[in-house]
Amino acid sequence: MTIGVTVNGKLYQDECDSVSLLVLLRDHWRLLGTKNACAEGECGSCTVLLDGELVNACLVLAAQADGREVTTVEGLADGDRPNTVQQAFLDAGAVQCGFCTPGMVLAVSDLLRRTPDPTEAQARRELAGNLCRCTGYQHILDAVRLAAEREAGAR
Amino acid sequence: MRVLRPTDLPTALRWHAEHPVTPVMGGTDVLVALGSGRLRPATLLDLSLIPELRARRTDGNVVRIGAGLPYTEIAERLGDPLPGLASVARLVGSRQVRNRGTLGGSLGTAAPAADPHPMLLAAGASVELVSVRGTRRVPTERFYRSPGRTARDRDELIAAIRVPVATGPQWFVRAGIRRGMTKSICSCAIVLAGGRVSVALGGYGPVPVRATAAEEFLGAEPAGAARLDDDLVDEFGRLVAAAAEPVTDLHATAGYRRHAVAVLARRGLRAVWRRRCGEGPR
Q1: For A133, B55, B67, B138, which has the most beta carbons within 10 A of its beta carbon?
Q2: Does the CB of A128 have a partner CB in chain B at under 8 Å?
Q3: pLDDT at B162 over 70
Q4: DSSP H helical segments within B219-253, as ranges?
C-alpha cells in the first residue's frame, strides 16, 4: 500500500507501511533532524507532532501516519530565524551535545501551547519522556521559563 | 509484514476470525515488541480507523470506555466519574506515550506491572470482548491469567472497558525508581464504595490481583470510623502483602516488594479514610 504523509507542509510517499514513522523520516526520506536513540519510547529523542499531537515517531506504525500531518524540528524555524523555543534554548545554553534537543524543543513547544505559564514541577513532569544524557536539565528548565516569558511578552 | 486497516468493527472481527493477526492500536507496546523481534507477525490488524473503539459514554452508573481511547483523554475527560482511573492515566508513561497508549492495549498486552490493572480490579471493572461469535463481559478479576496471558480468546478483540462510576474515594500509588516515566516495582489501588474497601496490586506478583483477605478483614466499615486504629492498619498492610507471591526481577527483590507494598497499602487506607471523613480531595 502506498502511504502519503505531509511532513512540514510537503508530501512524502512510500511503499513501506509496516515500519515505524521514525524509519520513514530518517532512513527513507533523509529527514535527519528527528533523532533515533532507544527506539522503544523511553528517551523522546524521536519526538514529533502527528496532527498536532506529541508522539514518539519510533512507536507510530507507518501505515497510521497515512494521510496525516507531521511536524518535525525542521518545520519549526521560519527560514533562518529560530522560533521562540529554539531561540530560548540557544540563549539559556540548553544545548550541550544537542542529541536530545530536537525532541526537547518539540516537547517544550507542545507544553507551552497547552500550559503557557508552567511551574517548574509541571515542566519537569511534562518533559519526563525526554531524556538528556548530558544531564543538562537545569538549563533546559531555564529555557522553558525564558520561552514562556517571551511568548507572554509577545501576546 | 502486511498491515490490514479495517474501518468498521464487523470487518475487523471477520478478518480477525479468518487470519492469524496481531491487533495494534496506539502501538506503544506493539512497536517495541516488533523492534526487539519478540513479535514477528505476518499480519498486523490496525484498529485505529474504527471510530466506535474510541467512543466513551455513561450507561447509568457505568462508564463504557472504548478500548482505543488514549490515556490523555481518560486523564482529561473522565476525572469526574472515574477519579481513580483518571489519576492512573495521568501517571502512565510520558505525554508522548499517553497520547497514543490505550486501556485496550494495556489489557491486551497484560504486562504485570502496567499501571491501570490495580485500579480496574479495585473499581470492579469488566472487559467487553467481541468476536464474530458475539459479545461477552469478563470481570477484570477473571481476566488476568498468567504473565501476559488473559481470558481473551484468539479471535476476540477488546471492544471496551466498563468501569463503575466512583461513589467514594479512590487512591492509587506506585513505587518506582523515579516519579515520572517509570516501571512500577509494585503498585496499589484502593477504592471505597458502598461501605466496603477494595484493594488490588500490580507489579508485585506474576499477575495483578485483588487482596481479598485484606478486604474481608476490614469487612464493612471498621467500627469507630472517624479514626483508624494503628493495629488495624498494620494488619491490613500485612494481609495485602500476603495476597500474592512477590517476584524477584531486575527491578526489585521479592523482599523489597513485600515491604513496599505493605507501606503503600497502609498509606492508601489512611488516605481514603481521610477523604471519606471529608478531609482533602476525593
Answers
A1: B67
A2: yes
A3: yes
A4: 230-241
Give the tens place of pLDDT for each residue, A111-138.
999 999 999 999 999 999 999 999 999 9
Q: Give the three-state DSSP class for A8.
A: coil
Residue B279 has what pLDDT?
Answer: 64
* A3 in Cβ contact with A13 (< 8 Å): yes
Q: Which has the closest alpha carbon to A5: A81, A71, A100?
A: A71
pTM over 0.90: yes
**For helices A137-154 and A84-91, angle between their N-to-C axes, nearest 10 degrees:** 130
B52: cell is: 466506535
Q: Find the CB nearest B46 among A61, A107, A128.
A: A61
> Given CB atoms, is B109 within the 8 Å cutoff of chain A?
no
Q: CB pairs below 8 Å between A and B: how many?
A: 83
Which residues, numbered 8 to 47 in chain B, qualify as contacts with chain A under a Cβ-Cβ cut-off of 8 Å?
24, 26-28, 30-32, 35-36, 44, 46
- Residue from the list B24, B26, B35 with its beta carbon closest to the beta carbon of A39: B35
